[in-house]
Specification:
Length: about 375
């Protein structure tokens, strides 16, 4: 079979790009089609790939501010030449599912989430929402048409599976994303909590700051973003902002933290699984992917509403638990990259019938 991989854009490195890495390891000869590629922003593994870009590659400012290219992505995806491929695997959070394939090709979409900027605009700033408002109607109609063409959808969590049905009326099968659990090891816990996320308003890091300051607990915050200044003003003597850190330093922080705090609703939250792979529990908001990966009382504690007092109560509950780091790591191994790759290989090389999607009625019942 001739196999190709498609992805929205390769201008920043995160969980979606790790999926592309894992897919390319399965099929190292598969070219990777994308709207834009910024080699300096990606790890060395991408330099070994045959990356093929759209006309947007020549618009260099967009590689640093990809949101400004909003009106161009539909045309960019349609311009990619995917003729002659038997299988196309799209890693999509909004654009790559729209690539045009041969009529008889098997087009599998691994969906991280339906486009957040089209359907969950409250997670963006007021200025961003105002600028994008005239485009939302036409882009939503285009996105719905694009979602009707792929052969099959796969979701990175049950949370996203429900969203796919609500937005696209497409059934999807859950395949959890790959986590490099071998990069993490159990260490001796120290007396601090950890947050590791992009510092944007919708990540609700403010809840962790308020809860830890109120309890007098030390909190280390990893990451950067537009909300950093306001969070630093909110923080006090117990909160320290570390900015961006490298993979090795983050792995060390996971090993040593008392627990990872995840105050937002995440699509899946690879960070939570990485913390568990380090034997550390997770205190998280009981919505989204964290509710699927964290077992309350066993590998962490969940709180039901995004309120600092409820998060503080969850931290105190965690401190009363008898935590078994080896058991927590064992749970994380369920999401290891090798399991993801083995399942994707069977799905693709076994054809369309390898994994049956859930009936539409079953998906509707979840919501």
């Amino acid at each position: 079979m001739k196999i190709a991989i498609a992805h929205d854009y390769l201008v920043q490195y995160g969980g979606a790009e790790r999926v592309v890495e894992a897919l390319h390891e399965i099929w190292p000869d598969a070219p990777v089609y994308t709207s834009m590629y910024e080699p300096s922003a990606m790890p060395p593994s991408f330099a070994q790939m045959d990356v093929r870009t759209s006309f947007m590659q020549h618009l260099r400012p967009l590689r640093r501010r990809s949101k400004l290219g909003l009106p161009l992505y539909p045309a960019a995806m349609h311009s990619l030449d995917l003729r002659g491929f038997d299988v196309v695997v799209s890693s999509s959070s909004g654009w790559a599912h729209a690539v045009i394939t041969d009529p008889d090709a098997y087009h599998l979409v691994y969906c991280h989430t339906p486009a957040r900027w089209l359907y969950r605009t409250d997670s963006y700033s007021r200025v961003e929402r105002f600028g994008a408002a005239p485009l939302l109607g036409p882009l939503r109609r285009w996105d719905t048409r694009a979602a009707s063409r792929p052969t099959e959808y796969f979701a990175n969590s049950h949370n996203v599976r429900v969203r796919i049905f609500r937005q696209y009326r497409r059934a999807a099968t859950v395949v959890y994303p790959p986590v490099e659990t071998s990069r993490f090891a159990i260490g001796r816990a120290e007396d601090f909590y950890l947050c590791a996320a992009r510092l944007a308003g919708y990540k609700r890091i403010d809840l962790a700051v308020e809860a830890c300051e109120g309890l007098g607990r030390r909190l280390l915050v990893v990451g950067d973003g537009p909300a950093r200044r306001s969070l630093e003003r909110l923080g006090g003597e117990h909160t320290e902002f570390l900015g961006r850190v490298g993979d090795c330093e983050l792995a060390d922080l996971f090993r040593r933290c008392r627990a990872l705090i995840v105050p937002a609703e995440e699509d899946f939250c690879i960070t939570a699984v990485e913390a568990m792979a380090s034997g550390r529990p997770v205190v998280g908001f009981a919505r989204g992917g964290v509710s699927e990966t964290v077992r309350p009382g066993y590998s962490g504690v969940l709180f039901e509403q995004q309120r600092p007092d409820l998060l503080a109560n969850a931290l105190q509950e965690l401190e009363r638990l008898d935590i078994d780091p080896m058991a927590i790591r064992s749970r994380a191994l369920r999401f290891d990259v090798r399991r993801f790759q083995a399942r994707m290989r069977v799905i693709v090389e076994g054809g369309e019938a390898a994994v049956e999607p859930a009936p539409l009625t079953a998906v509707a019942a979840v919501g």
